[in-house]
Every structure is written in C-alpha cells, then in structure tokens.
Amino acid sequence: MEQYLILFKNDFDDFVERLAKIQKLVAPVKRGSKSFAFDEVTAAEDVSLNYIPTILPPKKYFMPQNETIVEYEKKQNKWEAILYSEAITLFGVHTCDLAGIQCLNLVFSDRPNDVHYIIRKKRILIIGLECNDYCDEYATCGLMDNHNANGGYDLLMTELEDRFVIHVNTVDGEELMGKLAMVKPADAESMTMLNKMRNKKREVFQPEIDIERKELKPLFEESFQAEVWDSIHEKCLSCGNCTNVCPTCYCYDVEDEIDLDFNKGKMVRKWDSCQSRPFAMISGGENFRPERGGRQRHRYMRKFNYPFEKYNRYFCTGCGRCSRTCMAKINLKETIETLIEEKK
Amino acid sequence: MERTVLLKSPYVASEGRIIESRFLTKEEKYFKIALKGGKLLDFVPGQFVMVAIPGAGEAPISISSSPSQVGYFEIVVRKVGTFTSAIHMLEEGDMIGIRGPFGSGFPVRMLEGNDMLFIAGGLGIIPLRSLINYVIDNRRDYGKVSILLGCKSPENLLFSDELDEWQQRLDVNLACTVDRAAPDWDGNVGLITSLIPGVTLDSHMTYAIVVGPPVMYKYVLTELVKKEVPESQIYVSFERHMKCGVGHCGHCQMGSLYCCKEGPVFNYAKIKDNIEAL
Questions:
Q1: Which residue in the set B15, B239, B247 is minimally distant from A282, CB to CB?
Q2: Is B59 in the same domain as B149?
Q3: What is the Cα–Cα distance from A239 to B226, expressed in whole angstroms?
C-alpha cells in the first residue's frame, strides 16, 4: 500500500541530527551566493533546502572523480579488482538529479555490469526533495519531464508550508523512517495540501522551449550537418566543464599509478571529458574528433539522440548545469532553439 | 571507507606469460602468450584483449593468431607511445595482465561456403591474420581465398615467412604491394587500391574483409563497390582509443556505437551512414 508520512518543520533539526547519527549524511550546502554543493552534514543549519542545482551533481557519490578499481603488486603477480565504498544517506536530491542517477544506473548495469558502481549504488539511500517552483532560467526540466519524480528514490520529501510530506518508495526508506519518532503518518489535511501544490505545479512547469519532447530526438538525428555546430565551434574552449557538471556524463579514463618502490600500485578510474582534444585520439596520432564543434555535437547527441537505441530515453535531465557553468555561454536552450530555426 | 575485493569485476585480469617474443621489423614486436594454468582464451577472429603492464597501464591489442591454435595466442605491437615502449621491453618469461577477449569478431559461420577476399593495409594484417589462418585451417569450408596486402615498404612487411607459405599454397591467391621500394624489389609498387581491379571475383558469393589504417577505407571501399561486392558482404575492423573494453568509458564511441563492444568488426552496410565511423 502506498505510504505517505509527515514531518513538521519544527522537528527538522532533530530529524537531520538523527539521520546523521545513523550513517554518513550528505546534503546540499551553501558554497557561495549562488553556488551549492553536496557535502557531509551533521546539523540542519548546514543544509540548504532552497538551492539551485549543485555545482557537481550527486553522481560524485556513485562514480567518484578518482576511484581505485585495481590494486596490484608486481613482484607477487597480484592483481585484484577493488572497491572502496561507504554507506551514505543522500538527502535533498532534486528530481532532475534523481533522473540523472537513473540514467547512470542503466549504463553501469549494461553487461558486463560494473560491479564497482552497482555495489556502491546499493549502499546509498536516496531522499529526494521535490521542486515546487523553478530554480532559475537555465532549467529545462519542464520540457524533459523531470520536474516530477519518476521513481529513483527511497523517500521523496515535499515542502509544504509548516511541514514536509514524505513519500515512501522502498522498504529501505520505510525502515529508516521507522527509526525516527518525529515522523508521523500523513493525515488527510497534508494530502490535500500536497495535491493542491501538485496542481499548481502543472501550471508553473511548462516546456521551456517551443517543441514537444518526442520531437527532440528526430530534431537531433537530422542535425549532424547543422550550422549551429560551426557557431558553437567558434565559442567552445574545450574546458570540459559541461561534461563534468552533467549528471549523466560518465566517460572515464583509467590511469596506472605505481608507488615509488615500483612494486605496489593501482589503477584509478577518473572522470574524463569528450570535450578534451586527445579524448578520441589513438596512439598513432589519428584523432577521430579533432574539432571543438564536432566534440560539442557529440555531447549533445549523447543526450538527445544516441541513448534511444539502448535505453529509449533522453539523457538530458533538464538540470541546466551545462549552460549555467559554461564560460563561453554556450546555452542548451539556445542551441535547441537554433536547431528548430534551422530546420524551418 | 570499506575495502572489498571484487571477483567478478570487468577489471579482473588473467595472468599471461610471454612464452616467445621476437622483432618482426624494427618497429613491430611479436609475442606468444599463454594464460596461467593453461586457461583457454576463448575468442573468435577479430576480437581483442586489454593488455596490462603494471606501472605502464593498459591498452587494447588485437589478437593475431587463429583460435584453431590452442594453448597460446599471439599479438604484435608497434612501438608508438609509452605503453607500447614498455611492452617492447618485455621478454620471454615476463608476466602481463590479460582482460578479455572483447568486442565482436568476424562472423566466421556466415562466411562459410563463400569466396573470401582479404584486404589488409599496414598493421591491418595483424588482426586479419587471425581470420586468414582460421580460414586456411578450415580451408574446405570456404570458396576461393584471395589476399591483398599493402604496406609502406618491403622492410615493413610483417610475417614474411607466413606470406611465403601462403604464396606457395595452391588454394590461396596472394598479391602484395608496397608504396615505395628500392630497385631490387621485384614485387608490385603502388597503393593497395591498385590491386583490386585485377582481382576476378564472383561478387555475389564474395565476402570482402578490409582492415587497415583509417585513411585506407574510403578508397578501398569505393573500389569494392565498383566491383559490385554487395555492401552487406563487406566487413571492416576499426582502431579506436579505448580504456575499458566493456562499452562504458566512452573513448571509442563512433556515433552511437561503441567500437569496443559493437565492434571493432562492423558490417559496412550497417555503418556506412555513421559519419564518425569512416
């Protein structure tokens, strides 16, 4: 049976403190006037409930920037695949980022599945936080249909006046809430408040670009030779910020790091970016994606076109991070709008 | 952080021992490798392995021997960067890590009963040799076998002993060309494309297998289409940058395809419209 709970805001301090005592608690914290990050918290005062998408998405807990995947000892011919992981409660994940985690789950569950990712994922309990309104003008979650959660969480909290309504989606979530006495079953009044807010949300969130979501895939499919890639080519600095902050970019490099004794060492998986020039270069020197425009086109295709063959979904969550962070002001909304114009 | 040893990770490597090694040319070195405990590397021609040298890293390397030879497999590596320099320093008895085999190989069953036209440019002969020797080892199952081989100069020719053997066989037609040669070279001089018009073939029962440097494909494929070989009967194999071998890391992606997983062997008809492939 579907289960909803409530937590009054008066009890929020206590709630956070208790959660932090159960296992490592990670939540959005303020970093600057308009910047936020997921980080460990112990008290409610550390948590920013009203935040715009964090600088890095929560993918850093699922696939860390630097991750040891192999440890070896040369003299012993020893080579072991290794995982370093910890139990985490990830609190306050917006619905766009829930969608991002769902995309990563699909990729790393592909055969042969990446057990490093799979085990780490199982040790993370996700508490989502619904967005009742837009974060800023960069978001396209209305178009991508990620302003509401489509699963992907253990618990989802919705802030309503003096309380939070909590949707329980998994038994793990139910078990955790069972440990917290201040959380009560939701009453009819709370459910009415939730429905009222959701109805209002339908008016607030509208497609941010004048195109139907299902038309995005054919739009990109037919845009390999579009002129927009030439103009993006002129702007792009190949810094790779867009891919680093993207919740569904998962490309990586594997580096060998040997100790100074030249015996013990490890293989470390590190985030990589298809925007860097050597990304698709082979050792003979041939580069299969030498142009900045081609590399940006590749990034867009990986969000709006390619994932359909395998996963039948978009890999853009609409979080807006790529546009927010771009030093050259390459803007996802503008790119799509230009493509629509070009097609006319 | 808790440390867990994972037995089923795609990054688990098998121990491989180099049981023979020698230089084929100044730049290319050959290695014969046996897996620890006589473990079988269960592969089909066209697949590759990830070779790991602790301290130097890991790289994708084509398997050059035929799966009909058991107990070992062979690779040939050109020295072009840090990893390949490290592997060139290895000798008989040295250990390396082997992951794989990875990728799609050549469709050997589908090829049975057909004429085979093998076209290799430069290092392309290394992976193609696996299929050529497989076909020769099962010679009765195939029709006419023709091999066209091209490389820069006679000094770059790989497997010259084996080429002589193929040359002498009645059931194999071998033609070789070099881009340039000293006056004492009595073979063909010219690009590999110059050999194609001279081949007589029954296009509808011919499968053409083309492996070579990126620049070669466009010209060779044009010649094959002129010869009326159906596009669906042409197979190619590509080289790309790779870090994982299992379709995750993104480096080898060409359009929507991961060269390490959907490839490296591709049917030409299926990838001809992929603008990042050719």
A1: B239
A2: no
A3: 45
